[in-house]
Amino acid sequence: MAEVKKENWFKATWGKVCKYFRELRSELKKVVWPTPKQVLKNTLIVLACVLVVGVFIWVFDLVADAGITGLLKLRDLIKS
Questions:
Q1: Tell me: the pLDDT tens digits for 58-72?
Q2: C-alpha 48: how far from its chain's center?
Q3: Is residue 34 a contact partner of residue 42, using CB atoms and an 8 Å limit?
Q4: Residue 4 DSSP class
């Protein structure tokens, strides 16, 4: 009866790790990296969007705070 020789676990794992990095390098060569001008433009767009959303949330918070404060005052007037 012939013995089946098991492959070394470290050797098999190392082969998979090497294959992963080879494929990773191959895929990274296909990436089209943005120019510094595009990066600046996209960064400014993101900052503008963050600012607009921040202002929207701030205004909503002010309106909600005023509404809740008004309701609490109204409740206090009705209680007394």
A1: 999 999 999 999 999
A2: 17
A3: yes
A4: P
Q: Which residue has the tokens 């494929």?
A: 23
d(CA 65, CA 69): 6
Q: Which amino acid is at 66?
A: A
List the structure tokens of 36. Answer: 């510094």
Query: 55 versus 1: which is more confidently predicted?
Result: 55
Where would I find the H helices in 1-80? 9-30, 36-79
Which sign does the torsion angle of CA 53, 59, 62, 66 carry? negative
33 exposure class (CB count in 10 Å sphere: 0-12, 13-18, 19+) = exposed
Render pLDDT for 12-40 as a digit per residue (tens, 0 to 9).
888 899 999 999 999 999 999 999 999 99
Kindly report the pTM of this predicted structure: 0.58
